[in-house]
Design brief:
Layout lengths: L12 H12 L17 H16 L3 E4 L5 E4 L9 E5 L13 H17 L7 E5 L13 H6 L5 H5 L9 H7 L15 E7 L4 H5 L3 E7 L1 E10 L3 E2 L11 H19 L4 E3 L3 E4 L5 E2 L2 E10 L2 H21 L3 E10 L2 E2 L2 H13 L4 E6 L4 H5 L5 E6 L15 H20 L3
Parallel strand pairs: 3-4, 3-5, 5-16, 6-15
Antiparallel strand pairs: 1-2, 2-4, 6-14, 6-16, 7-12, 7-13, 8-11, 9-12, 10-12
Bound molecules: glyoxylic acid and manganese (II) ion (MN) (2 copies).
Amino acid sequence: MELPSQPSVVINGTRLLARIAELAQIGAIEGTQGCSRLAFTDADREGRDLVVTWMTDLGLTVTVDAVGNVIASTGNAGAAGAVMAGSHIDTVGTGGRFDGNLGVLAGLEVIEATLAADIDVKRPLAVAFFSNEEGSRYPPDMMGSLAYVGGMSVESVLEVEGADGTIVGDELERIGYRGPAPCPGAVPHAFVELHIEQGPVLDNEEIQIGVVEGVQGISWTELKFVGQSNHAGTTPMALRRDPMAVAAEVTVAARSIATDLGGPQVATVGSLTLHPNLVNVVPAHATMTVDLRNTDETLLREAEKQLMNSVQQIADREDITVESRSLARFEPVEFDKRVVDSIEAIAQQKGLSTRRMPSGAGHDAQMMARICPTGMIFVPSLDGISHNPAEHTDDEDLIAGAQLLADAMLALTEVTW
Ligand code: GLV
Ligand code: MN
Ligand code: MN
């Protein structure tokens, strides 16, 4: 692809790494490199406060919207017409220090380096951190960016009840991040998210940059199985109505559905709660989640259909009642070909090794793709480990990704759609 001549800056890798390390001190999981900053907790507030301080110290215009999304811009119209970077700074309960944080702090670094270079840039630059990308405390994932693009109303975000019984609106108010800026938010000129791959492909193939073409579809379902709680010693096996036995069979069925469908289909049971959860009591109920993902919407629907058929069959056999609820459902997303092509061309021009790939994880970029031309850059994750405190990306890969983000953002300031 032919690239327009473009302004360029050199990012300060040392400053970027220092900020990643400093943010990782908040909610640090002792004895590891990882963090726990679940959305809207005190640790999330502390992380937000630190990043907002960095943003305001640069003299950026900082806005907080009605669901807690924070945007910093070099212009005074917020994200409107800006070339925007962004991601999230909340983590899963057992998170690493790079997931999300890299994209936010690299975006901030691109802005700081550009301001310091004092070059002529045709459009404002912006960086965002979106609320509750992880969705582990409050479903769905990508909640903040979904609201930003108008895919979920502010009212419905604020009333979501979390796994711990708390309510989003109360917690957002409590941490002081229920802001006045409008949501849905302004439409940027383009959006680019730098993120760690969180999978093994780049590391295995020793490739520096993943040029992300899209994000696979995500389906989260909560299943509650209700049976008959009873004495573990006196209730004969044939007379039990055991919801845990059903949960176990459904777990195995979900795994078989994924392996039988093959290809990119994955299935995960990541949460299982029993009540009363005691050694000598047949449980009264079992609540579990199933996360199904596929790059192909038709196959994802097939996996969902097969899962629900198995659930019904297994539960009927055990005389168990099923309550099911969708926690998140997003179709696969394709990124803008022009943005994808230019990220690839710039990376190759800089001598970086690249590979096109889909994203297995959900990302704020998949929501932003609904309102503006969007793309993503991946850097390798050591051994493909993520959502784990052991998550690691080498410094040189973090810096190469951030430099590519700078080059891509500045190139996009020159492009008209
Ligand atoms: C969100 O990060 C997800 O992919 O689950
Ligand atoms: Mn992430
Ligand atoms: Mn994550």
